[in-house]
Amino acid sequence: xxxxxxxxxxxxxxxxxxxxxxxxxxxxxxxxxxxxxxxxxxxxxxxxxxxxxxxxxxxxxxxxxxxxxxxxxxxxxxxxxxxxxxxxxxxxxxxxxxxxxxxxxxxxxxxxxxxxxxxxxxxxxxxxxxxxxxxxxxxxxxxxxxxxxxxxxxxxxxxxxxxxxxxxxxxxxxxxxxxxxxxxxxxxxxxxxxxxxxxxxxxxxxxxxxxxxxxxxxxxxxxxxxxxxxxxxxxxxxxxxxxxxxxxxxxxxxxxxxxxxxxxxxxxxxxxxxxxxxxxxxxxxxxxxxxxxxxxxxxxxxxxxxxx
Amino acid sequence: xxxxxxxxxxxxxxxxxxxxxxxxxxxxxxxxxxxxxxxxxxxxxxxxxxxxxxxxxxxxxxxxxxxxxxxxxxxxxxxxxxxxxxxxxxxxxxxxxxxxxxxxxxxxxxxxxxxxxxxxxxxxxxxxxxxxxxxxxxxxxxxxxxxxxxxxxxxxxxxxxxxxxxxxxxxxxxxxxxxxxxxxxxxxxxxxxxxxxxxxxxxxxxxxxxxxxxxxxxxxxxxxxxxxxxxxxxxxxxxxxxxxxxxxxxxxxxxxxxxxxxxxxxxxxxxxxxxxxxxxxxxxxxxxxxxxxxxxxxxxxxxxxxxxxxxxxxxxxxxxxxxxxxxxxxxxxxxxxxxxxxxxxxxxxxxxxxxxxxxxxxxxxxxxxxxxxxxxxxxxxxxxxxxxxxxxxxxxxxxxxxxxxxxxxxxxxxxxxxxxxxxxxxxxxxxxxxxxxxxxxxxxxxxxxxxxxxxxxxxxxxxxxxxxxxxxxxxxxxxxxxxxxxxxxxxxxxxxxxxxxxxxxxxxxxxxxxxxxxxxxxxxxxxxxxxxxxxxxxxxxxxxxxxxxxxxxxxxxxxxxxxxxxxxxxxxxxxxxxxxxxxxxxxxxxxxxxxxxxxxxxxxxxxxxxxxxxxxxxxxxxxxxxxxxxxxxxxxxxxxx
Lengths: 308, 641
Known about the structure:
Largest sheet of chain B: 2 strands, antiparallel
Radius of gyration of chain B: 25 Å
Oligomer: heterodimer
Mean pLDDT of chain B: 87
Low-confidence stretches of chain B: 171-198, 203-215
């Protein structure tokens, strides 16, 4: 009977590990990380795999010992167990070994965290005594509310010192769009996150980007997209499929009420600045006839064109 | 101590209801927890029903339970409404954390086992102990009543983040909410007199009765009250446990001779005593925000919900997160340390071999508790807190994996070379170790701040918390119930039924919670009513269905446990004093122990883990046993019965 228990533990653990391996090995299932489309995404994914490798090692060792121990040492075995109360050498060993692994993870995490979150902070609200971040190519104010995202695009370049003022006052030339984030490949994008009501969280899976919005605060974020999925065709005056035929979604990741799940937005990465500016011009001409307080359903300017 | 002072109970009421006896109080906690365990489980199944089949009309369910109409509105296609869905997961978590796991580990096992295991006659403060149970009843009332008030129960998550939880909307402004269920409460609005300025009480009542644009109506106030009372209960318990363990140990029971169960409960009590006041204060602050209109969590400029504006504030929503997690992160350890202790004791008794590394085990528990106080910020990496703070919290959080790893290796070394007895109790304890490894490892992903950017608030955290709280703590509780049931009730539980329950729960729990890791890796956010509207999540919908099927089957399997429990209570075979041939003090008392526990005050001569002793009868020496005459009898100063 003890063999049955040993095999049960082995089977459950192998099934768990196997499920992860299947999800990893067969990306066509869509059970694994979505595409990585920003500069920080591959860094985060690399960390993810580093942690996974160390965890797999620990997992196989510990579960292996447990399964083997259940197999080898049932009460039917003759004689008493050896009354061992401990072993200092072993204790030191299995304290230091995981510590080494954990320090590796910490060391690898620090620079990625710094580049992912300090940069945005640096670009908008400079930290004393550190290198200035490169100026932003695009500044977009994202205002969350129940239950959509309003994005205000600056249509002319902004100096870092001018960002705060722009966030407060805006300019008449600004473009306001609901639920659609347009950037171009390689652009240094600064997002300023705000909310009018409760906490939301701006989550773009393919960019590995997530940041809560906090009532009463403006939170800066910086990213750079590396793959484009859409292109503005001036002849057809609409968006067409880019180098990557995919819809990339924006989601809310912090509970914000009953329709939390409905805060679905879309990310459009243009191949270059030209395509983006053509879209911007088009969108501005479309929005001229609108008021800024248009309701969420009708202010989606590219409603028809949004399916590339 | 005062444990001498309370006489044996005279009548039914003082014996079984308003009892001062720690054993009866422990069993009271056990059975109240059982009721909420069933409620919490049903709420979870509601969540799974929705996630597995998001567009399914529940017409049959409505036919059987017509009172569910407000929650499964016919004008919403007889489907669970999004608002009800938020209540389901909010109340599931609240019930399971504050009304099942905490009262079971601290209230039931803590009360029952501490005096017995340290050789005391009762708790240091028996009346405080009784009060700690009965103060839970207002808490039960508010928790359950929340479901029946306007707008239903709290729906802002068990974390109750402001401003979703703390702002109540003025009832006179039409609700901008989009969906049917939000309007239900609006139809029940009380009409206020248009001419007269409402008085203070009127204003308070309006706030309480407000329809919730933010899923936080009156139910949220009830939720806050329920948690305040349950916190007071835990506080009384923890003061009592600390005092009892420090002052009431039997002669010879030094701190380092205490079984690990007592250590786990002791450290937990210290954690609770230090952290709970912070939560209680935060709960009061939110209560005041909601009822009398303070603005602790309202930002200076105020907020606008659609067309409705709040007044100006002056507070800070992030403050709540700091205060809440300052308690609720240690609470994670409050919900695992006693289980770790219990599992160690069950395991050693089943292994017939001493515990490997007693001192490292104790020190690693202390290490977990100590570090547990400086890691709360890891819940807030993406909250808008200064990212430089995140760096510090990451280092502390990653370090906390270390004592957990040390514990795991010591458990494995305990099992290695043992003579394992396979009982329902020991199997659950072994499963605890195996599953705690998975739950611990998935935590490292969240601790690494950059990876957390992606997986924060996804199903990876749901998988992680359930591997720690269900597959670890709950399996520890199963192990504890199977193991100490004979002591509590003088009868043993049915072993074959126990093993069937174990195998099925073990398989189905993994079937339920393991695929959640995959959902998390995909980026599936938690607390989503209907993930299928997202293209990138549609490939994982079959997994969601698989999870739901496993969860529902697992719900049915728990009936085996309940049947076993109640059948054995009355018809189980009689157990002797020591059915598991265990060494610790509780097994020296009769089963069940009488008022005052022990016939004679036990004199403790050694630690609880003397197994595998070749020349001793049964290969073991109990804590009071004196088989080897040369063993020194040590009775330190300061311990007295």
